[in-house]
Automatic annotation (TrEMBL):
Keywords: DNA-binding, Transcription, Transcription regulation. PANTHER family: LACI-RELATED TRANSCRIPTIONAL REPRESSOR, LACTOSE OPERON REPRESSOR. It comes from Streptomyces chartreusis NRRL 3882. The gene is lacI_1. Residues 34-56 are annotated as: Disordered. InterPro entries: HTH_LacI, LacI/GalR-like_sensor, Lambda_DNA-bd_dom_sf, Peripla_BP_I. Pfam families: LacI, Peripla_BP_3. The keyword Transcription regulation applies. Residues 65-119 form the HTH lacI-type domain. One of its GO terms (molecular function) is DNA-binding transcription factor activity. PROSITE patterns: HTH_LACI_1, HTH_LACI_2. The keyword Ion transport does not apply. Signal peptide: none annotated. This is Lactose operon repressor.
Amino acid sequence: MNTRVALPSVAPRSRVPRPAYAVLLPGGVRTAATDVEESPAMTPSATDSPVPRGRSRRNFAGARPVMADVARLAGVSKQTVSRVLNDHPAVRPETREAVLDAMRTLGYRPSRSARSLASGRTRMLGVISFDAARYGPASILTAINTAAQEAGYLVSSIALDTADHDTVVEAVNRLSAEGADGVIAIAPQQWVGQTLARADLGTPLVVLENALDDSTPLVTGDSRTGARKATEHLLGLGHATVWHIAGPAGWTSADHRLASWQATLQAAGADVPAPLVGDWSAGSGYDLGRRLARRPEVTAVFASNDQMALGLLHALHESGRSVPGDVSVVGYDDIPEAAHLLPPLTTVRTDFAEIGTRSLRLLLDRIDGPGERPRVDTLVPVDLVVRASSGPAPGR
């Protein structure tokens, strides 16, 4: 559903495609894209004389210089200019210098479409994200956009608010149709990874959080280590055991944190309470926190993200349970607000920006060197940030 905007002209026009930005909303896909159409009057004819050195940096129509201008001034073909743009090794040094000199004289800067023609690439990357409003996915997407811009790429982002099989397939097909050079999928749920693994994408793919197969690169935060550090921290403060507010079942990070919490308690010989399952929201943390606040034996709680920990703190305060005097609380993610809660929240810091940057580097590596290769798993380290919400067990 691209919107085409034409420059006013009575002459026939040729369409120059530009990469589109797409956002998939609950009601369907909304794209914001433009196809700029050029009039022949914007392009110099073959009879135009070269622009003398040191003179105007515009062609006769006042338009920016194009590849044909460079070719005429350098005395070469447009194909040779294209090869210079693409750093082709077969171009003689003196020819390359003549082309570069012509570019400097004309003030020529290759357009994105010219680079695409020269390299056979669109210089556009696709990103599929889920639950993009949450702090983690939003931070990752911001980092991907920043790194892509620095590398000379545009990003077409599709945010899925409703994650079902048909929606995922539609997103994959749309990015393929747009000609994405590669795709990064922020796939937090296991079934999403399985759907992507079956999709015929036809372009390099990097996945966050879910391992798809033996070749698709995986980038993720080290959730198992983070949960172990959180649980060991609370046990080290003298708490007999640690209760857990888990994320939704089927979310890879939630499942990994749950499994690591259980394993850490078992290794310490501590009782393993039944986990309480939330939905990542502060509201679910509050509801589950009210249940925990009524149990005097609960002295330490590890929440699978900071939003649920925030709701837990609210419930404990409302119930008259002091933190950390009566109950110690540890969250996960280290959202910007964590240091400013009352009390400041002990949490596990995930470097979401690093996850986004590493995934972009991996994707560009796959684009530059296509072919079968073993899967590369990148576990981004996490850190325990100790603040005032965790303390010694009551009576110690």
